[in-house]
C-alpha cells in the first residue's frame, strides 16, 4: 500500500494551549511523507472494546519548517474525537494517523500569488501552514493577506505568531473581524465577512489573486460567493469545509 494511505503510529511530543477551546498537538511520525500546505490527515482512535472513530485534521505546520507534524484541534463540546484530544491526550500518547490527503486545497511557493486567505474559526489552520511555508521564502514571498473571522479576540488562534508576522513588513497583512464579542476599546472590524470587507482586503493585494477559503460550511459558501461577485474567476478560488456550524 502506498505510504500516503497507510495508517501510522504518531506519538504526541508536545501539547500547546492556543485558546480556551483550541489546542495544538505536535507529533513525531517516523517517515511521514512530504506534504503540501493545505493538506490534512485522518486521525483514528480505537477504544478498548474495538470501537473506532475517525476524523480529518488539517496540517498546521509547514513541510519545510523545523518542527514536527502539527495539528490544531478545536473543542466541539458534544463531539466524540475533539474532546478526547482536549481532555485525554497527553505528551507521550500515541494515535493512528494517515496522510497527507488533499489536492486542490494546497499552496506551494511555486504557485506564486498574491494570496488571499480567508479563514473562519479553526478554518485558519491550513492557512497557517501556507503562511508558515510562505515565511520560509524570505524576500521572494508573494504578497499575502489573511482575513480571519473569529467569535472573539480570545478565540483567535496563533494570535501572537500572526501579529508578529504582520508587523514584519514582508508583504503579509492581517485583518481580524470579531463577530460576537469585542474587547473594550476594540477599533477593528466586528461583523461577518461582507463584500466591503473583502474589497478592502483585496485592495491591498495586486492581481491576479489566488484565494483560499476555509471554515464552516456557511462561512465557505458565503465568502466564496462574495469573491465570485467581486469578479474573481471561480478557478482561482479554492475551498475547504470543516463542518456544519457557523462562525
Ligand atoms: C478536511 C477537513 C479538515 C479539518 N481540519 C480541522 C482542523 O484543523 N481543526 C479542527 O478543529 N477541525 C477540523 N476539521 C473538523 C474535524 O474533522 C471534526 O469534524 C471536528 O473536530 C468535530 O469532531 P468531533 O468528533 O469532536 O465531533 P462529532 O462527534 O463529529 O460531532 C458532534 C457535533 O458537533 C457538530 N460538529 C461536527 N464538526 C463540527 C465543526 N467543525 N464545527 C462545529 N460543529 C461541528 C456535529 O454536527 C455534531 O452535532 C476538519 C474537517 C475536515 C473535513
For the record, the CATH class of the largest domain is: Alpha Beta
Poorly predicted sequence stretches spanning 5 or more consecutive residues: none
Ions, cofactors and other ligands present here are: flavin-adenine dinucleotide
CATH superfamily of the largest domain: Nucleotide-binding domain of ferredoxin-NADP reductase (FNR) module
- Overall pLDDT level: 94
Q: How many strands appear in the DSSP assignment? A: 11
Overall, the morphology is globular
Helix content: 10-25%
Task: Give the CA-CA distance, first to last residue.
Answer: 39 Å
Strand order of the largest sheet: 4-3-6-1-2-5
| Total of DSSP H or I helical runs spanning 4+ residues | 5
What would CATH call the architecture of the largest domain?
Answer: 3-Layer(aba) Sandwich
Describe the structure.
The chain has 2 domains: 3-101, Elongation Factor Tu (Ef-tu), domain 3 (Beta Barrel); 109-241, Rossmann fold (3-Layer(aba) Sandwich). β10 (210-215), α5 and β11 form a beta-alpha-beta unit. 39% of the residues are buried. It has helices at 81-87, 124-135, 159-167, 195-202, 217-230; strands spanning 8-19, 22-28, 40-46, 52-58, 69-74, 94-101, 115-120, 144-150, 172-178, 210-215, 237-241. The protein is an alpha/beta fold and 247 residues long. The radius of gyration is 18 Å and the shape is globular. It has a 6-stranded antiparallel β-sheet, with helices on one face. A 5-stranded parallel β-sheet has the order 9-8-7-10-11, sandwiched between helices. The longest helix has 14 residues, at 217-230. It is 20% helix and 32% strand. The chain contains 5 helices and 11 strands, in the order βββββαββαβαβαβαβ. Flavin-adenine dinucleotide binds next to β4, β5 and α1.
Amino acid at each position: 500500500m502506498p505510504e500516503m494511505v497507510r495508517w501510522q503510529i504518531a506519538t504526541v511530543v508536545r501539547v500547546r494551549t492556543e485558546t480556551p477551546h483550541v489546542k495544538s498537538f505536535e507529533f513525531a511520525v517516523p517517515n511521514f511523507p512530504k506534504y503540501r500546505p493545505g493538506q490534512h490527515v485522518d486521525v483514528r482512535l480505537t477504544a478498548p472494546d474495538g470501537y473506532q472513530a475517525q476524523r480529518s485534521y488539517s496540517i498546521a505546520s509547514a513541510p519545510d519548517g523545523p518542527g514536527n507534524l502539527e495539528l490544531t484541534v478545536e473543542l466541539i463540546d458534544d463531539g466524540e474525537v475533539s474532546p478526547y484530544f482536549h481532555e485525554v491526550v497527553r505528551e507521550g500518547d500515541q494515535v493512528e494517523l494517515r496522510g497527507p490527503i488533499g489536492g486542490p486545497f494546497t499552496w506551494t511557493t511555486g504557485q506564486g500569488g498574491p494570496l488571499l486567505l480567508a479563514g473562519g474559526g479553526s478554518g485558519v489552520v491550513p492557512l497557517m501552514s501556507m503562511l508558515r511555508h510562505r515565511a520560509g521564502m524570505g524576500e521572494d514571498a508573494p504578497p499575502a493577506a489573511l482575513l480571519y473571522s473569529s467569535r472573539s479576540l480570545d478565540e483567535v488562534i496563533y494570535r501572537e505568531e500572526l501579529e508578529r508576522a504582520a508587523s514584519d513588513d514582508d508583504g503579509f497583512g492581517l485583518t481580524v473581524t470579531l463577530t460576537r464579542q469585542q474587547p473594550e476599546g476594540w477599533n477593528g472590524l466586528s461583523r461577518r465577512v461582507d463584500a466591503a470587507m473583502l474589497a478592502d482586503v483585496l485592495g491591498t493585494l495586486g492581481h491576479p489573486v489566488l484565494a483560499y477559503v476555509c471554515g464552516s460550511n456557511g462561512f465557505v459558501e458565503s465568502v466564496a460567493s462574495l469573491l465570485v461577485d467581486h469578479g474573481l474567476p471561480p478557478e482561482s478560488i479554492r475551498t475547504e469545509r470543516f463542518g456544519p456550524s457557523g462562525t
